[in-house]
């Protein structure tokens, strides 16, 4: 049995929960012979309940390790408290010699590690050394892990997030206001204040657009900012949306705007690519692995209101540009970010790490082996992507 540990399981509202839900749903449909269970290590988002959910996860996994049921532990980790909780689970798995895949999602994990004291840094390095493979979301994160942990990281593999996409793209009308969409948590680090300021600037204010902001968080803060800027009648706040609601907004939109200060590889960008939207984004984390400036979207520096306003003005005024960027994004999605591509790569990671692997169908094509471990000269010298 493979145990997939994630905060909130498949119900967590953020990108981590969505990728776990996406790939486990896909495995159930296409690879029913792969035996796995999802273990919730946090609960439904209320911190006061977290200790109870975490203790339940510890006891459940301890029993599975003790009875020899566990082939593999696949841990999804963010930063700060998530590192402590996952460190406990990794240490327990190491005690029972259960192989561990550590899947790193936290956009703020580098800051967490760099700000930590000597004891915390030592503990994190020990946790890294106990894992059999570290999975990261893009080349930026791979290089950071290699530079930060060296030979403690045995093997570092890039596995881009992925989403299912529609077979047929929605038809987008060119008349009427251009429909802009922000999809994510409403917090300052997501750059929503920068987006509203850009739309309220002289470059964009008088152009024909409307904005939907979908997500939970500091809703009243940004509603008040929109009112101060005189944009309230053109900005719609939906609150948190489930997967069906997100798909509905993506199909209705013309442009996705992702102005974040930090990211791993945001699911909203990949979902917009799958739906053929034009995308304006900041090149933070591994966003640059998906968005190539002027080809699959437009990239602007994080926090730069003027640059964001200029990019918004371009896509609002130029329907041909929107079409070109949307088609480029969809083509990139089909090559690299479709959930079917992810399926093959995650099965290869499972195959090479799990004890007594019996999870692949007969005739399943094996992927080529990855490069040697992160501390080896071959990996350090590699300039190209390390994607498996």
Map the helices and strands.
Elements (H helix, E strand, L loop, with lengths): L1 E5 L8 H16 L5 E5 L9 H17 L5 E6 L3 H15 L4 E5 L4 H7 L2 H13 L2 E4 L2 H11 L6 E3 L19 E6 L8 H8 L9 E6 L4 H10 L6 E5 L3 H10 L2 E4 L8 H8 L3 E4 L5 H4 L7 E2 L5 H13 L1 H19 L1 H15 L23 H5 L7
Parallel strand pairs: 1-2, 1-3, 3-4, 4-5, 5-6, 7-8, 7-10, 8-9, 10-11, 11-12
Helix pairs in contact: 1-14, 2-3, 3-5, 7-12, 10-13
What is the CA-CA span between the terminal residues? 22 Å
Average pLDDT metric: 90
Q: Give me the CATH fold name of the largest domain.
A: Rossmann fold
Q: Give the spatial strand order of the biggest sheet.
A: 2-1-3-4-5-6
Any key phrases for this structure?
Rossmann fold; 15 helices; alpha/beta; six-stranded parallel beta sheet; 388 residues; single chain; disordered C terminus; 2 domains
Provide an overview of this structure.
- This protein is an alpha/beta fold and 388 residues long.
- Helix content is 44%, strand content 14%.
- The strands form 2 sheets. The protein has a 6-stranded parallel sheet with strand order 2-1-3-4-5-6, sandwiched between helices. A 6-stranded parallel sheet has the order 9-8-7-10-11-12, sandwiched between helices.
- Strand 5, helix 6 and strand 6 form a beta-alpha-beta unit.
């Amino acid at each position: 049995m493979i145990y997939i540990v994630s905060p909130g399981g498949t119900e967590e509202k953020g990108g981590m929960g969505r990728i776990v839900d996406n790939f486990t749903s896909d495995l159930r449909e296409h690879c029913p012979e792969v035996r796995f269970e999802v273990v919730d290590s946090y609960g439904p988002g209320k911190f006061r309940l977290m200790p109870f959910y975490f203790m339940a996860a510890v006891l459940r996994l301890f029993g599975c390790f003790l009875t020899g049921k566990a082939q593999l532990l696949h841990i999804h980790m963010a930063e700060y408290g998530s590192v402590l909780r996952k460190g406990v689970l990794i240490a327990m798995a190491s005690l029972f010699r259960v192989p561990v895949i550590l899947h790193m999602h936290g956009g703020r994990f580098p800051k967490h590690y760099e700000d930590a004291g000597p004891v915390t840094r030592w503990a994190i390095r020990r946790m890294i050394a106990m894992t059999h493979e570290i999975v990261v979301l893009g080349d930026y994160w791979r290089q950071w892990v290699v530079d930060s942990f060296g030979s403690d990281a045995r093997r570092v593999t890039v596995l881009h997030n992925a989403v299912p996409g529609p077979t047929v793209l929605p038809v987008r009308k060119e008349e009427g206001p251009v429909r802009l969409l922000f999809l994510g948590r409403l917090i300052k680090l997501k750059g929503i204040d920068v987006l509203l300021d850009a739309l309220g600037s002289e470059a964009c204010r008088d152009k024909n657009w409307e904005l939907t902001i979908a997500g939970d968080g500091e809703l009243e803060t940004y509603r008040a900012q929109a009112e101060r800027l005189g944009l309230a009648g053109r900005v719609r706040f939906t609150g948190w949306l489930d997967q069906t609601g997100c798909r509905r907004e993506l199909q209705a939109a013309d442009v996705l705007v992702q102005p974040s200060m930090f990211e791993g590889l945001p699911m909203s960008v990949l979902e917009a690519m799958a739906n053929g939207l034009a995308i304006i984004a900041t090149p933070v984390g591994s966003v640059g692995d998906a968005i190539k400036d002027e080809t699959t979207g437009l990239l602007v520096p994080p926090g730069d209101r003027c640059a964001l306003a200029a990019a918004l003005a371009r896509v609002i005024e130029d329907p041909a540009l929107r079409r070109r960027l949307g088609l480029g994004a969809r083509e990139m999605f089909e090559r690299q970010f479709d959930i079917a591509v992810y399926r093959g790569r995650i099965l290869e990671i499972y195959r090479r790490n799990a004890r007594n692997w019996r999870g692949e169908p007969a005739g399943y094509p094996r992927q080529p082996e990855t490069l040697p471990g992160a501390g080896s000269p071959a990996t350090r010298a590699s300039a190209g992507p390390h994607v498996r």
